[in-house]
Write a structure and sequence with these properties.
The structure holds three protein chains of three kinds. Chain A has 28 helices and 26 strands. In chain A, the strands form six sheets. Chain A has a seven-stranded mixed beta sheet with strand order 5-4-16-15-14-6-7, covered by helices on one side. A six-stranded mixed beta barrel of chain A has the order 20-25-22-24-23-26. In chain A, strands 11-10-9-12 form a four-stranded parallel beta sheet. Chain A is globular and about 120 Å long. Chain B is an all-alpha fold. Chain B has a single domain, classed as Formate dehydrogenase/DMSO reductase domain (Formate dehydrogenase/DMSO reductase fold, Up-down Bundle), CATH 1.20.1630. Helices cover about 70% and strands about 0% of the residues of chain B. Chain B has helices at about 15-40, 55-70, 70-80, 90-110, 120-125, 130-155, 165-200, 220-245, 255-290, 305-325, 325-330, 330-360, 375-400, 405-410; strands spanning about 210-215, 215. Chain B has a two-stranded antiparallel sheet with strand order 1-2. In chain B, helix 3 crosses helix 8 (about 220-245) and helix 4 packs across helix 6 (about 130-155). Chain B is globular, with a radius of gyration of 22 Å. The mean pLDDT of chain B is about 95. In chain C, strands 8-1-10-9 form a four-stranded mixed beta sheet. A two-stranded antiparallel sheet of chain C has the order 2-3. In chain C, strands 4-5 form a two-stranded antiparallel sheet. Residues about 1-5 of chain C have low confidence and may be disordered. The chains are: A alpha/beta, B mainly alpha, C alpha+beta. The interface between A and B is small, with 8 and 7 residues.
């Protein structure tokens, strides 16, 4: 057949028609669509057997009970344990994001040794043996030079076996420098020791209170134990309990409260004393408590009546007289009133005067150790290890004064003063800290005046981090000995975040360790063994798990079964015998006397405004931080899920917004979304403006929890770390950081 | 060089010049194709669309080209069904423009969907309640009709016509073209309507939502009517542009004026209906949902009441008045002004029914959201224009598109 | 004794969200993301392109300091049943490929990711912005795909997704019930991830038609309202608020109407 044009065309038409009618194109079409439904780059999670494992969330001090859903050996979802004394089924968004920290690429996969500059992020993978040997060699060196006291440890907690082992190690080694990171607990602990006597932490029976007077506490913004507080808030709604929120900014807590009382920042103590004035003057206080169980009510009465009349207080606080009178009457008139403080989430100690004044209010209405009141809770003392047998080096080291000055003649009431510790490291010619261990803490991010903190780190020749995820502090370490993540390890977690019960929770290895990590407890024991002698002898356990089981004894089974153990015999002592002060009574002026008002109590000893940095002329605005549950601001930063929930009026791309009242903005000729440069005496930052009617004119507020330099692109480089713009303000008598804000100015960018 | 392909008795520019023109259009086309490939390979993140603007520039372009391509069905309807014989002198061009518009619409839809490889699910898993299903079916069917209408014209190419089979095929197809034209008109009536229905049935979107007749909201009929009115205007406009470029008279004025007159009356009746619809919407439909007319046109940086005035008055009433008056039609400047305004008017109508509808907040605690298309969206939207220019140029050069060309431009 | 329902197997699952209790903490959003394998990008601050099946809105009363008030409002999919409960929700009726459907036995609006071809008509139809498009391929950082839930398939690029009222939990609960020889679920056997996680207990989930379920009475509260009721979408998510301005924010009102309303209030 000749292939002419006609044949060719017919052939073409035939081929097209034939192919179309054949199943081929249809089959192809179908196959291609099936392919799009199963793109190989879209993961398909494997199915398997479903199990649940109970544990405790350790991402914040809240101590929520969690139950982890597993598919075979994968953890796929974190949920709350129903009936748990803290969270009863609820979980917060950080807890819910926990698996992103467990499985995420921010995990440190093996021991790392720094090879580049500090903070540069250049590491060399080393073996555990090498890592531990290096630590042991360094520690041995320092010890043989009689410098054991130059070793320090910063930790997020001082309760439980791991902090216990670390502390024990320092004792056996010969250093008194175990430091807990600062928080409102510092202030409460000091206030309670001076007003109640003895060592205890504050427990708040929020669930049973029917009138809550909150001096700036972000009750539902992450104060103490976030989920428990939100639950309490719902109970208050059901029970029609009243909540009064006192703070200059309409926080979520203020928004949920029944009454929001805006107040000039930093004057809360004055308001508390003003309320005390009214309560005393109108004789609304609990006479039973005040007369029988308080030591110095009359002295307190005299000074309060003299110096804190509603007119004066109104002037100081900006809260009008009518409100003061009404608040005082409502508070005293409630059957279970509760006054609390600790600004925002309570991540800074804050003013101890404020704690004392607020606590005095509770005492006036007699709701100490009562349902709906404040309880002085002593920590569970289940850790009963034999006394450490110190050798000569250890004894002499332990006799040294702490680097931070806590417990010294100058600050006899303080337990830990990390803010002073930074100053001490920076101010001596040679750093008084030669080796530093950090666990469960991220001071390079969370401490105020970040650049000074980093400077202090630079002066310490040997920094070891136990972090399981990369963070700012780990980035500034010389050696990272990565711990198992909390979902990979056993650890007892005594719950202390404002709980009124004595509860120990157990963190459990929900999944097997994903990487070449080691339990901090085991690391300590192994280092002790390497150092030998009396140090080794102080650690008679083969490994951490043995130690833990032995320590917990008969509680172990309950802990494994339920995830927590609650002391069945726990009760709060009645007023009779509850106080261990010198007078064996409640002391209204306990804190005041410690301040030096022993002989001549003056109003200034009860309330002196904290002077924040910067003069009004060059810094006409006041910058305050605000805490949000959606922005983790502790040692752990927001995982991807959590940062996703942050509103676009808080963070947009890399820019953080500061909140400003439209009235203030008008004076600066600034509008919503404008860029501005915010200057404080400590630093400056480029920010965006969010106009917010809920903030007092003259103030600007910035969220905490942003401005991370690590660990990953989901978080790093977004916004500004508030701590870069603020520095500590030290209480002259207690050494605590009492800062609540800093003066600032703004220029339109 | 290509003179053997050029129809007898007409003059065309040199192949070099022609190639240059095609090359320019081709470059734009390639740019569009590049953007299209980006969208297909990397996904729709290449666009500036977002969860508030699921429908954006492309859907507008789709609606607009379909409306403008409406010249094909309506001219066909007038020529073959009503029997306006003069229109045979422009019907070819109307069909080509229609073909370009509809093929472009299908292409844009293929880029616009997130999963183009399974877009045939619209047929396989069809949901008869969806206006989009109706659109897809009618659009595809009508596109087949357009191909059928285009084929005989292609076969009239001098070389193809030499093949007896093609010659006969072409002849026979012409014979039955009335049936196809009628089918096309019927299909078009529905899909032009469904296009309007797309917005009209969205009862969650007070800006677009309209009451209506049975399952069809008023926009269903308004869209058909406006396409019938403005489609021919676009045909006139493109013809006029072609005449300007070729520097030749291609269609006699009486043909243009006839089409313009019909368009004018369609436009006039449409705009009356549109005004009634808008009035009813503003005073009854919207208030029942809690909105006043000005809620739709305030509190944002762009969409003011001006756009409504522009659409209805400037680009509706004015061109309608020009086109229905003899003086207006006979003055070529006025005629072209009216035609251009009508084309702009229908485009604005399609724009607001897609983009303003998306921009407007419905929840009381949300705000207006404005959007600017990405370059990829712009390029893929211009792509059909370049493609259209090329198809038109090729058709004009090699096919006897304008029956009156020889007569109007005798070669010495 | 339980009342005999007309259609024994017909349920109308819905939610009542107490806005007085909601603290805006965001736990519901993350619980949902973790349960439903919702993808996340390196930058999620563009909220027009950020998948959050349940999204917490922040409402303000618009008054200046110190009379400002805030209310948070979590917005899952409303699972609208449309006019006359026919299941013609704004989105279901427009989907050209039947990729989203109204299940008359549960009242849940489903989304079939593998059938959706991404035309986004449903998104244009939904006045609540409850529907989200996968503009990007979902990418989990190395290792994190281990935390994916096998009960919910991760979505591919180019399809629409939305809240399903954790339908997979309903299926699992029903499976369990069937193996135990039951045809009915107890109220607590099927709860959504957000309901379960909410620290405030602000979300109550159940069968709106079942008098034994808590939502049945809650939805009748004088403080109850739904979003955009005037559009006749007939949502199955109710909100409770004791605040007048919040209830009013649920819908659009003409000025004249609000004046009348104010007088009544």
């Amino acid at each position: 057949m000749k292939l002419n044009r006609r044949n060719f065309l017919s052939l073409g038409v035939g081929v097209v028609a034939g192919t179309t009618l054949s199943p081929l194109p249809w089959k192809l079409m179908d196959d291609v669509s099936i392919w799009t439904q199963n793109w190989p780059w879209t993961p398909v999670p494997p199915d398997g057997e479903v199990t649940y494992e109970k544990s405790v969330c350790t991402l914040c001090p809240g101590g929520c009970g969690i139950t982890v859903r597993k598919i075979d050996d994968r953890a796929v979802k974190i949920e709350g344990i129903e009936g748990h004394p803290v969270n009863d089924g609820g979980v917060c968004l950080l807890g819910l994001s926990g698996l992103q920290l467990l499985y995420g690429p921010t995990r440190i996969k093996s021991p790392l040794k720094r090879v580049g500059e500090r903070g540069e992020g250049k590491w060399q993978t080393i073996s555990w043996n090498q890592a531990l040997t290096e630590v042991a060699v360094k520690l041995g060196e320092l010890r043989s030079n009689d410098r054991s006291h130059t070793v320090a440890c910063i930790s997020g907690s001082d309760q439980g076996t791991v902090p216990g082992l670390l502390n024990r190690f320092l004792t056996a080694y010969g250093s008194p420098n175990y430091i807990r990171t600062p928080s409102i607990h510092d202030s409460y602990e000091i206030a309670l020791s001076l007003m109640h006597g003895g060592q205890s932490s504050a427990g708040f029976d929020v669930e049973n209170a029917d009138f809550v007077l909150s001096f700036g506490s972000g009750i539902i913004d992450g104060w103490m134990s976030p989920v428990r507080m939100i639950k309490a808030n719902s109970i208050w709604k059901n029970e029609k309990s009243k909540v009064v929120q006192i703070e200059p900014r309409l926080s979520n807590t203020a928004a949920k409260s029944d009454t929001w009382v805006p107040i000039k920042p930093g004057t809360d103590a004055a308001l508390a004393l003003g309320l005390a004035h009214v309560i005393i003057k109108e004789s609304l206080y609990n006479k039973d408590f005040v007369e029988k169980y308080a030591f110095d009510f009359n002295a307190f009465k005299t000074i309060v009546l003299e110096s804190f009349g509603p007119d004066d207080v109104a002037k100081i606080t900006g809260v009008d007289k009518k409100t003061i009178l009404s608040l005082a009457k409502q508070f005293a008139g409630a059957s279970k009133p509760l006054a609390i403080c600790g600004r925002g989430q309570g991540k800074t100690p804050g003013s101890i005067d404020e704690v004392a004044a607020v606590h005095a209010l509770n005492a006036l209405v007699g709701n100490i150790n009562k349902p709906g009141g404040v309880w002085a809770v002593s920590q569970p003392d289940y850790i009963k290890w034999p006394e450490v047998q110190m050798d000569a080096v250890a004894s002499s080291g332990m006799k040294r004064e702490r680097v931070d000055g806590a417990g010294s003649e100058k600050f006899p009431n303080a337990n830990y003063l990390l803010n002073r510790w930074v100053g001490a490291v920076n101010s001596s010619k040679e750093s008084p800290v030669q080796a530093l261990f950090i666990t469960d803490a991220n001071p390079c991010y969370t401490l105020s005046d970040t650049s000074v903190v980093k400077k202090a780190f630079d002066r310490i020749p040997f920094v070891v981090s136990f972090s399981s995820n990369i963070n700012e502090t780990a980035l500034n370490a010389d050696l990272i000995l990565p711990s198992h993540a909390s979902l990979e390890r056993y650890e007892d977690v005594p719950l202390s975040a404002g709980l009124t019960k004595s509860v120990i929770a157990l963190s459990k290895p929900v999944v097997k360790p994903q990487f070449n990590t080691k339990h901090v407890g085991d690391v300590i024991i192994e280092i002790a063994k390497k150092l030998g002698g009396s140090i080794e002898e102080a650690f008679p356990w083969d490994d951490y798990e043995t130690c833990l089981k032995a320590t917990l004894g008969d509680k172990w089974d309950a802990l494994v079964e339920n995830g927590y153990w609650s002391d069945p015999d726990f009760g709060v002592p009645p007023w009779e015998g509850a106080f261990a002060t010198g007078s064996m009574k409640f002391e209204f002026l306990g804190v005041v006397r410690a301040r030096g008002g022993e002989k001549d109590v003056q109003a200034k000893h009860l309330f002196t405004p904290v002077t924040i940095e910067g003069n009004e002329k060059s810094y006409p605005l006041t910058l305050i931080p605000y805490d949000s549950l959606r922005l983790a601001n502790g040692s752990i930063g927001d995982p991807p899920f959590a940062i996703k929930t942050v509103e676009d009026t808080v963070l947009k791309h890399k820019d953080v917004f500061i909140e400003m009242n439209p009235e203030t903005a008008e004076a600066y000729d600034i509008s919503e979304g404008d860029y501005a440069v915010l200057n404080t005496p400590k630093g400056k930052a480029r920010v965006k403006i969010h106009l917010f009617d809920g903030i007092m004119p003259g103030l600007v507020a910035m969220p905490t929890g942003l401005g991370h330099t690590g660990p990953d692109e989901y978080l790093a480089g977004k916004g500004i770390n508030f701590n870069e713009l603020i520095g500590p303000v030290e209480d002259a008598d207690f050494g605590l950081d009492v800062v609540w804000g800093i003066r600032a100015n703004l220029t339109k960018a | 060089m290509d003179s053997a392909l050029i129809p007898k008795g007409v003059k065309r520019c040199s192949l070099g010049l022609f190639t240059l023109g095609i090359a320019v259009a081709g470059a734009v086309l390639l740019w569009g194709v590049y953007a299209m490939l980006l969208c297909w390979i990397k996904g729709l993140n290449q666009t500036n669309m977002n969860d508030y603007y699921g429908f954006a520039l492309w859907i507008w372009a789709d609606l607009a080209v379909i409306a403008l391509g409406g010249g094909a069905f309506f001219t066909g309807f007038l020529r073959y069904v009503i029997g306006k014989d003069e229109l045979k002198n422009i019907i070819n061009y109307a069909v080509i423009i229609g073909f370009i518009c509809y093929s472009s619409a299908l292409l844009i839809l293929a880029i616009d969907v997130g999963q183009p490889l399974r877009s045939w699910f619209i047929f396989w898993h069809a949901n008869v309640h969806s206006m989009l299903t109706e659109v897809a079916f009618c659009l595809s069917c009508y596109f087949v009709v357009l191909i059928i209408e285009f084929i005989p014209l292609i076969l009239e190419n001098r070389q193809l016509d030499k093949v007896p089979f093609f010659h006969n095929l072409s002849h026979n197809m012409h014979e039955v073209m009335a049936i196809f034209a009628a089918t096309g008109a019927f299909l078009s009536f529905f899909h032009q309507g469904s296009m309007g229905g797309i917005a009209g049935v969205l009862y969650g979107r007070p800006f677009g939502s309209r009451e209506g007749l049975l399952v069809w909201p008023w926009t269903f009929f308004l869209f058909t009517w406006s396409a019938a009115a403005c489609g021919p205007c676009f045909t006139i406009l493109v013809t006029w542009i072609t005449e300007k470029i070729t520097k030749k008279k291609l269609v006699k004025d009486n043909v243009i004026r006839l089409l313009a007159k019909i368009s004018g009356w369609m436009l006039a009746t449409y705009i009356i209906a549109k005004i009634i619809d808008t009035w009813y919407w503003a005073t009854v439909t919207a208030p029942s949902m809690g909105f006043t007319l000005m809620d739709f046109y305030s509190n944002n940086a762009f969409y003011g009441i001006w756009i409504l005035v522009l659409e209805i008055f400037v680009c509706g009433v004015i061109p309608a008045l020009i086109l229905i008056t003899k003086t207006g039609r006979n003055n070529s400047k006025l005629l072209m002004t009216a035609v251009i305004l009508a084309v702009i008017g229908v485009c604005i109508n399609r724009w607001v029914m897609v983009l303003q509808m998306m921009a407007m907040p419905v929840l009381t605690f949300e705000n207006w959201v404005l959007y600017l298309p990405s370059w990829q969206e712009v390029a893929t939207t211009i792509l059909p224009v370049a493609y259209g220019v090329i198809v038109l140029a090729l058709s004009y050069r090699y096919l006897p598109v304008f029956p009156q060309e020889k007569e109007l431009n005798p070669i010495d | 004794m339980k009342k005999e329902h007309k259609h024994e197997n017909t349920k109308k699952f819905g939610m009542v969200i107490d806005l007085d209790k909601c603290t805006g903490c965001g736990a519901c959003m993350v619980a949902c993301m973790a349960e439903n394998n919702v993808p996340f990008k390196k930058d999620e601050s563009d909220k027009l392109d950020s998948i959050t099946w349940i999204c917490v809105y922040k409402l303000t009363n618009g008054k200046s300091f110190p009379d400002t008030e805030i209310c948070y409002l979590p917005r899952p999919c409303m699972h609208c049943s449309g006019i006359g409960e026919h299941g013609h929700s704004p989105c279901v009726s427009v989907c050209p490929a039947t990729a989203t459907d109204y299940d008359h036995t549960t009242g849940i609006v489903s989304q079939i990711y593998t059938r959706c071809f991404g035309c986004r008509y449903c998104m244009a139809a939904c006045p609540y912005h409850a529907r989200y498009f996968n503009w990007w391929d979902p990418v989990w950082p190395e290792g994190m795909e281990k935390s994916l839930n096998p009960d919910v398939s991760p979505r591919m690029r180019g399809v629409v997704e939305k809240c399903s009222f954790c339908f997979h939990r309903y299926q699992a609960a029903m499976d369990k019930a069937y193996t135990e020889g039951r045809r009915e679920l107890e109220e607590d056997e099927y709860q959504t991830a957000c309901t379960q996680a909410c620290p405030a207990g602000a979300i109550t989930f159940g069968d709106l038609d079942n008098p034994d379920h808590k939502v049945y009475e809650l939805k009748k509260s004088p403080n109850a309202f739904r979003l955009l009721e005037r559009l006749k979408t007939n949502p199955k998510v109710y909100y409770l608020s004791s605040r007048d301005w919040v209830r009013k924010a649920g819908d659009n009102y003409l000025e004249a109407e609000s004046k009348v309303k104010k007088k009544i209030v």
